[in-house]
Amino acid sequence: QCGSRIADHFARLDFKARTQRKATIAPTVIAVNTDQADLTGLRFIKNDFQHRVLLGLRQTLGHGVGKINELGAQLAKEDGDKVLEAVKVSPQFYETHAFLVVAGTAGGTGSGALPIICRAVKERYISKPVYALAVLPFEHEQTTESRSVYNTATCLKSIYDTVDAVFLADNQRYVKKDASLISNIDTINRMIVEPFYDLMCAGEVTKAKHVGARTIDAGDIIASLEGWTTIGLGRHELPSFRFPWEIRKRTFREKALESFRGTQALDATISDLSLTCSPKDAGKAIYIISGPEKETNMDMVKSVADYVKELAANALIRGGDFPGEKHFIDVTLILSHLSFVPRIKDFYEQATQYAQEHQGQIEETKKRIQSLAELGKDLPTLE
């Protein structure tokens, strides 16, 4: 459900890019699930069997795998050809630069199928990079549902060596505690997807007014992605209406503030990264500044570039600009090739402990059931 709904928002972004920027950024979006109801609830992905793929209907009857990721992996192996066939029949398939496979890691279908589907795609289409977007569980799931921790850890361990890079999105980073559950989930899914928008549009636009001075293209993005990866988007809002003479900066204070807007947006980006991490642990980084052409000048670009270098001192950095929304200065940042991720360390440690304790619990349960059976062995059985 998590992965399918996030994929649905990628389809929404593609529609937005087509209508506003005449760019195709996600030519084929496919939802894959073992739960029929989850596939039914999507809004933007096409409602046909080639775009909504149901796995394991015979085994699950369309009702999911109940958090058992071993079963999710098995069904993905058995029905994985459905996904590959759905990808291949897309009319724009050979124009795509890469695959992005999205899944929640707490459930059974996503955590089990993600490594299997990625491996199948990687083996079939060896010339195209394959990336995973792994959505980590909420804090309450981590503390109360041991199986969610186990699913997450085994999924991450299995996926790391399979794909070219793993985007990590921590659900807990986006929670608004005073909002309803439905509102929270939809908002979180939007916030996970939104940072990809400008990056995906930058090299695909067809109108000159949308081409930046320093263009970020698919080649730059592919070269900047490796291993554990996080992404974030920060925004500085501009006044919705200004007279032409207000745009031209007259005083030194106004000029200084103009350059400072970029670093303010970058501060917001760091605060809203999809995963808590230290930028100094990144081996690669890529950023893009988006905003009105008249508001994006060399001073702003230099201040943002210097700030990124200061934050990610050990990273190979690429950057560029993109003429984006009229009333915002946006900075999108990807930190990749992370050498240390505390959240993953926690999952691995907790899952190892769970596996050991779970085995002991199984043995203890068997003994108790057997002892109960022994107590009733002399009682008559009704026939």
How would you describe what is shown here?
- This protein is of the alpha/beta class and 383 residues long.
- The chain has 2 domains: 2-193, 3-Layer(aba) Sandwich (Rossmann fold), CATH 3.40.50.1440; 221-336, Tubulin/FtsZ, C-terminal domain (60s Ribosomal Protein L30, Chain: A, 2-Layer Sandwich), CATH 3.30.1330.20.
- Helices cover 48% and strands 16% of the residues.
- The protein has 14 helices and 9 strands.
- A 7-stranded mixed beta sheet has the order 3-4-5-6-9-7-8, sandwiched between helices. A two-stranded parallel sheet has the order 1-2.
- Helix 5 (108-124) runs parallel beside helix 7 (146-160), helix 7 (146-160) packs across helix 14 and helix 12 runs parallel beside helix 13 (298-311).
- 42% of the residues are buried.
Write the layout of secondary structure elements.
Elements: H1 2-21, E1 31-33, H2 36-40, E2 52-54, H3 57-60, H4 69-88, E3 99-104, H5 108-124, E4 130-136, H6 139-144, H7 146-160, E5 165-170, H8 181-193, H9 196-202, H10 218-223, E6 227-237, H11 244-247, H12 252-271, E7 284-291, H13 298-311, E8 316-323, E9 328-336, H14 342-375
Parallel strand pairs: 1-2, 3-4, 4-5, 5-6, 7-8
Antiparallel strand pairs: 6-9, 7-9
Helix pairs in contact: 1-8, 4-5, 5-7, 7-14, 12-13
Summarize the structure in short:
This protein has helices spanning 2-21, 36-40, 57-60, 69-88, 108-124, 139-144, 146-160, 181-193, 196-202, 218-223, 244-247, 252-271, 298-311, 342-375, and strands spanning 31-33, 52-54, 99-104, 130-136, 165-170, 227-237, 284-291, 316-323, 328-336. It is of the alpha/beta class and 383 residues long.
